[in-house]
Specification:
The chain is of the alpha+beta class and about 150 residues long. The chain contains 2 helices and 8 strands. It has a single domain, classed as Alpha-Beta Barrel (Multidrug-efflux Transporter 1 Regulator Bmrr, Chain A), CATH 3.20.80.10. Pfam families: GyrI-like.
Length: about 150
């Protein structure tokens, strides 16, 4: 596994929370995309992230917490389920997952093994996934997702 250490800059995110199976987070994405489209927030600089707070091996599926997020660079009014937050800069172990989303767990498991064998230590925050292409316009085998694990 090829892992790089990156320092991410502080990011301002618009997000919609989701509680339930991670495979059902699409509902949150639809709400966020609809709102973002209405406010003209999708640009070439917009980044899409999923933030995952719970380990699906330890937490019942109905209690899994996640957020569908996009970066924003201007002030916008929020409505309904859309919220705004800032994620502070920090160090992350980063690796790329190539292929369908239903295989992401395998890449997260490999990244966890890498962490155990490295000299790095988990910072204790949630893991992020950065989606580099549109799953509605990209074949599953061509999807590219960055896995970002916060480290000290």
């Amino acid at each position: 596994m090829d892992v790089k250490i990156w320092t991410l800059d502080t990011m301002k995110l618009a997000y919609v929370e989701h509680v339930g199976p991670y495979q059902e987070v699409e509902v949150a994405w639809m709400k966020l995309a609809s709102w973002a489209g209405e406010h003209g927030l999708f640009t070439e600089r917009t980044k899409s992230f999923g933030i995952y707070y719970d380990d699906p091996m330890k937490t019942p599926a109905e209690n899994l917490r996640s957020e569908a997020c996009i970066t924003i660079d201007k002030e916008v009014p929020t409505v309904g389920d859309v919220k705004i937050k800032e994620v502070k800069s920090g160090r992350y172990a980063v690796t790329a997952h190539l292929g369908p989303y239903d295989k992401l767990t395998e890449s997260w498991t490999e990244l966890a093994k890498w962490l155990q064998e490295s000299n790095e230590e988990c910072a204790g925050g949630p893991g992020f996934e950065q989606y580099l292409n549109d799953p509605h316009a990209t074949a599953p085998e061509h999807l590219v997702t960055l896995l970002l694990l916060p480290i000290k």
